[in-house]
Amino acid sequence: MLSLRRRLVLVHLAVVLAIVAAAALVGWWELSRSVRGQLDAALLALAETEVGMLADATGGAIHVHEAPAGTAPPSLMRLDRLVQIIDANGNVLARSVNLGVARLPAPQPLLEQLAAGQTVYQTLPHVIEEPLRMVSVPATIGDRALAVQVAGSLDDVNHVLHAAVILFAGMAVSLLAAVGFAGAALTRKIFGAVDDIALKARRIGEANLDQRLPHPGADDEIGHLVDTLNDMLDRLERSFDVQRRFTADASHELRSPLSRLRTEIEVTLRRPRDAAEYIGTLRSCLEEVERMTKLVEELLMLARLDAGQEHTPSETVSLNDLAKETLWRLEPRSREREIKIVLDAGPSVTARIAYGPASLVLTNLLENAVKFSPSGGQVTVRVAADGDSAVLSVDDQGPGIAADDLPFVFDRFYRGAGARAGVVEGVGLGLALSQAIAHAYGGRIEAANRQGKGALFKVLFPLAA
Questions:
Q1: What's the CATH fold of domain 4-66+74-159?
Q2: Would you tell me how many other CB atoms lie within 10 Å of the CB of residue 151?
Q3: Which of 2, 92, 114, 252 lies most in the core, judged by the most C-beta atoms within 10 Å?
Q4: CATH, range 315-462
């Protein structure tokens, strides 16, 4: 199969050839019409002159008005012109000397047209050794109906048109050669730049995603292509960095509970113990397994969300009922920490979401609020409508979010200063998972600090019609 470069050159040449051919055809047609028109005008002028002379010579013998040789100045009008005068029946009454014994044709259809007063033009290809162009003009001399026929050779016209064909063909070939050479050079330059970009792009792989394609310096299509590819490389580099960090953090978070689990089992097996100690160890191991199970489930859900596979069909959900049910499930845990969870709900608000994922989002936010709130504190959940969004907000009375941490709270495995210091447990996936779920249903989560003390999270879902 031909390369794109060659196909482009061939298409370019085909278009130019079509345009040149059309222009040459129109030019040749116009030239032919002009040259033949000039010949017709000259023949008609001579015929009308002869008719005028016949009218002036009323009563005399019918003859072609030619000056005897050597008695008049040169007459370019009569040069190579054959003149013949006929009557209504086609009988030849007079002819020019240069016609000799030959006669110009006067068939019956022509006589009928002349009788009707029409001036008739004809092309006669085979009357004599040269093709002729003839005009027949009707004339009335006294009471007689006559016609003057004047013919001229078409050789000069045909030679002019033949020369024009050669000229147009030569110009077309020269133009095609010049345009083809220029087009080939231009496409070679353009595709050479594209090939150079492709070659340099192939050299950029996973190990050197920090490299970028050199910009040609011009603000043209090639420059825009390089800018687009470099932007894509930026996004790929960020994606690979996120993937590497995600893999490293996931490995670390899985390795830590496994190490604790193994250590606890090894310590327990070093010497015989009573049943109570074994039960305590098993319970501790079960807690580690539960934390690992939750971590793996969250990782799997994030992976499915990234791949677009985790999307329960949307339905109309009452956020008031959702908040009540979630608060009821979390009441035992909040009571243990002496945290009061308050629902501030006005009129019923409905959203287009899936109940299960929306409940998981609110559960994660409430668990975070309970973890970071001091004993005796209060967590408030509000339900409201704002424009075309249904809003769930959760605020607490904890320390709030550090300004340095605020832009990163929804990053995967990101843990704030308090969490990193071991003040609260967690692996940093809850908010990332909640944000991914909100995005999957056309919503988002916004994080901020309250004016007083504490953090404020707002979940915005599409409002149900």
A1: Beta-Lactamase (3.30.450)
A2: 26
A3: 114
A4: 3.30.565.10
